[in-house]
Design goal:
By secondary structure, the chain is mainly beta. It is built from one helix and eleven strands. It has a single domain, classed as Jelly Rolls, CATH 2.60.120.430.
């Protein structure tokens, strides 16, 4: 489906997930969810939910990422979203809306990863705010991005060394790959 969108030549972006439909599938039909480093350790977790507020736009959902890495053990967890082998050389940017939950607390920085079967390209997103912010990250800004020809997964990682707050909630909406150099 991603290749079809590029061949059409009319779109300036590839909408991966707007989370505006109930269910655990992206707009491209791929699954997403949460993961925990140690599911047996109740002191660390990431819970993923579709919520209708807050969201970007008049209808639909955003994805809520409730995380906790405040553990006596090394802690990391996060959100994963499968991709249908996105050919990265065809795109210039990864774009999405993100915000923190002022009432529940949130980290101002988080680790993002684009992955294939063997490699991971990393970007540290900084300055997350309590209001929606549209983030547009050049793909070249991901460390080791040249090792990944086709991205199979997008991951948000909460780890006890990167986050500014060990417990909190973020919201994510409208994940897009944009064309351009």
């Amino acid at each position: 489906m991603a290749e079809e969108a590029m061949m059409a030549g009319q779109a300036k972006h590839l909408l991966v997930a707007d989370f505006d439909r109930a269910g655990w599938k992206t707009n491209l039909g791929d699954p997403f969810g949460g993961w925990d480093k140690d599911p047996g350790d109740s002191t660390q977790f990431c819970r993923v939910r579709l919520v209708d507020k807050p969201r970007v736009g008049e209808h639909g959902f955003s994805v809520q990422l409730e995380y906790d890495v405040d553990s006596p053990n090394p802690a990391f967890n996060g959100f994963w979203l499968k991709l249908p082998s996105i050919t990265l050389r065809d795109f210039g940017y990864l774009s999405f809306a993100i915000r923190g939950d002022a009432d529940r607390g949130f980290t101002s920085r988080v680790k993002l990863e684009l992955k294939d079967h063997k490699h991971s390209a990393v970007y540290i997103l900084r300055e997350i705010k309590p209001a929606w912010v549209q983030v547009r990250i050049p793909l070249w800004a991901f460390r080791d991005i040249r090792k990944i020809k086709q991205a199979k997964e997008f991951v948000v990682v909460f780890d006890d060394e990167t986050v500014s707050e060990r417990v909190g909630t973020l919201y994510l909406d409208n994940l897009v790959f944009e064309f351009g150099a």
